[in-house]
Amino acid sequence: MLPSKPHQDFTIGSIYQHLIRLAIPASMGMFFNTLYNLTDNWFAGKVSDDALVGLSISSVVFYLFIGLLAGLQNGTSVMVSTELGLKQPKQLKNIIRNCLGLGISFSIMIIVFGLLFARDAIDWLSSGEIITALAWDYIQVLILGNVAFSLSIVAAGALMALGDTKSNRNALVVGFFANLALNPLLTFGLNMGVAGLAWATLIIKLASALYLLIILCKKLGYTPFPCLNKNASLAILRQVLPASFNFFIMIIGSLMITAFVSRFGDYAVAGYSVGLRVEQVLLLPALGLNAAVLAISGQNYGAKNYRRIAETYRKGLILSFSISLVCIPIMIFLSPYLMGFFSQHESIISVGTSYLRIDALAFFCYVSLFISVATLQSIKQPDFPVIMGFFRQLILPFIVNFFLIIQFGYSIEWLFGSVAIIVFFSMIITLVYTRAKLKKLAYIEE
């Protein structure tokens, strides 16, 4: 039996209020999580410029291997929110247990493939022996302990569907401050170097996973032990795999862009990586809104309130536009100062500033894509974002930049500009597709 009112009912009430109530804690948590990553970059820079480059490269490679886990969070949230809308507590318990089981299974796969291929991926991105060694020192710790990431991700996804984004926010805020203490202690106090940054992350993730699982058990009124049931796992994988594959494509695309950037030198890679981190901070309100749209629309899909899903989508886009009006000027005018906080190296600052100013033109395109993808996932239509992502982040950028950068030798600004233009046209196509799907659902409801 579920305890009384274990979750918020998103099928009634003001959509704006639901969006804001969920998005603000989620955005705050993501803000501190990004600050967490930026803190790692800052401490790596204090070790050496080579350490900063090594951390930047290993971070990209690590995210490549945990792509399955990113999809698992969205898949968990969609499946749990749908069951809440259907009001089936027994099936809800089965879904959560299987999500945990899949998370552990994915972690085992990540350890195997990470140990086999992570070093090769690092070697592909950098030819410097010192940088490669530093990157491997960092990433091997996280690969071996990635189960902490999987458990915290599943718990956070389930809690988000239940209407609780505050618990994950609390874990991320505390984790940030714990990182401020552990990083200097392990990196400099115990002389562990960049490996100390990785061990700090692993310790904090383990504590966060335990905390979120305890909160989830209290809300549910029982302890969902991990399991793998064929039918339930297949239903979850139907949502998880497209989202994971989409994330995987995004990381591959990032690796590909990083490879193009690396033609301009290792410091260009560091500048691009730090610029991405800064942009992520500005995208956080939109990402929090994305999480809110996913939970609200998923619950309404289970309850067959299709018109309410369309209303959530429309109001999510309006709030996204408001966020863009604030963030775009920051990217254009303040980017040199933001980059200068992380490095004093002229090349790193120059590349990061160029990236932020050019990508500001595509900022609203990104945030509207987030809302569209969340809406499609919530109505069990996860395939189109994968197809669009394949062309937007792999095929088109590769073809365009092969000619611009390799064949014609244009500057790095052309690389960043081509990515922004591709994102713009992808946004238009995705908006049209999402609206068509929502109109079809509204017709079914009639």
Largest sheet: none
First and last CA, distance? 34 Å
User: From the alpha-carbon coordinates, what is the Rg to the nearest angstrom?
Assistant: 21 Å
What is the strand tally? 0
Provide the helix percentage: over 70%
Which of globular, elongated, flat, extended, rod-shaped describes the shape? globular
Counting helices, strands and paired strands, the structural category is: mainly alpha
Strand percentage lies at under 5%
Describe the structure.
This protein has 446 residues and is mainly α. 86% of the residues lie in helices and 0% in strands. It is built from 16 helices and no strands. The protein has helices at residues 15-47, 49-65, 67-86, 89-125, 129-144, 147-161, 166-189, 194-220, 230-262, 266-302, 306-333, 335-340, 346-359, 363-378, 383-407, 412-445. It is globular. The model has no long low-confidence stretch (mean pLDDT 89).
